[in-house]
Structure formats: C-alpha cells, structure tokens
Amino acid sequence: MDDGVSFQCAFEGSLDEVVVRRLLRHVGALPGELYRQKKSDLLGKLQGFNASARTRPWLAVVDLDHDTGCAPAAVRNWLPAPSPFMNFRVAVREVETWILADRERLGRYLQVPEARITGTPEAIDYPKEYLINCARESSSPAIRKGIVPGPGSRRTEGPTYLSLLSEFVNDTERGWRPEVASAHSENLERCIRSLQNTVGTFSREPQRRRSSR
User: Percent helix, strand and coil across the chain, each rounded to 5?
Assistant: First the structure.
C-alpha cells in the first residue's frame, strides 16, 4: 500500500473527506494533499486543480445539491475540459446519497429495518435530511441522540453526526461497502470506475516513459 498511487484531493466538508479517503483505499490508492473548501471556493480553484492534473492524479468532489438538474450537466458546465488525471465528481445530490446506497449495512448500523431505507437513493432530494429522519426511528438511543438534532437546536444534525457516520464509513468489516453501494448508485459507480481507470493509467506511465527512451 505504501507504493500506491497518490491522489491530490479537494472536497467540501469533513464527511466528504472521510468518504474520499475510503474510496481511495477501496481502489488501492492513497490521499496526498487535501484541500477542504467551500463549494464556491473549490469551483473557483477548479481550473488550477485541473492544470495540476495534467501530470498527477486528482479527485475533486462537490455536492450537486440543487444547482442543476443532473451531475453530467454540472460536470460539463463546471469543468468542460478535464485533464487526463482529473477525477471531478459531482455527488447526487449529497455525499450522504452514496452512504445510503448500502442500505443493508446502514440499516444495521442505524438499528432501523432495512426496508426503512430507500433502494433508490439518487431519487432523494435531501439525502442528509432523509438519513437523519431514518435515525429518528432507531432503536438505539445513542444513534438517535447523536445523529438527530435535539429539540430547539439550530444545528442541522446531532452532536456526533460526523463521528458516527465516519465510524460507519471506515469500518471495513461491518460498515460501508463501496462495491455494494455502487450497485445502487450509478453516480458512485462512475466515480469508482473513474478512480480505478486513473490508478491503472497512472501506474503504467513510468513504464511507458522508460520504454520510450
């Protein structure tokens, strides 16, 4: 793993970072420099990241939210000419969608029936809110108190929302399975396939340069 391909990464929030790191581990890659940015700032720096991706792998992830109708249109609008090693991915509609896509494991973790979690996560308009509402029905007080904001709270999530979901995403034995989630999220499947293609292509580059001498 020490010799894995290293990706420079840009993302919006702390949960996005957890998912990005997990996806890189899933494809046998490593995180390089990490840039946490507000969405507007990330998009503003995207061309600079793209220039860097001419020679080194990049993964930049932003949420689609409700900025436009679909992720492919957003990608074409925000980065019409991606560099060879740029993986610019737009999560539909938030990175929580990708987490919801492993409904069996998430249901078990949240201690709610699997049937409570949708089998079509990309159709949800507000995935984070949906996930929190699933947690409201948990049989675990720790899940309810941690993920769901308390009465009268101005927070959009509970006090341990990030730590609990991070635990779920990082648990390779009982937690989130990117390979299973990608079967229920075409958006995630395309992200993983793009990363795998970059790992394969970049791994062959040194050999190609040596053979051309």
Answer: 50, 10, 35
Pairing of strands 30-36, 86-91: unpaired
Q: How far is it, in rounded angstroms, from Cα 33 to Cα 168? A: 24
DSSP sequence for 152-204: T---SS-TTHHHHHHHHHH-TTTS--HHHHTTS-HHHHHHHHHHHHHHHHHHH
pTM recorded for the entire structure: 0.94
Domains detected in the chain: 6-92+185-211 (3.40.50), 97-178 (no CATH)
CB 181 within 8 A of CB 102: yes
Q: What is the pLDDT of residues 138-185, one digit of tens each?
A: 999 999 999 999 999 999 999 999 999 999 999 999 999 999 999 999
Sheet holding 30-36: strands in order across?
A: 30-36, 6-11, 58-63, 86-91
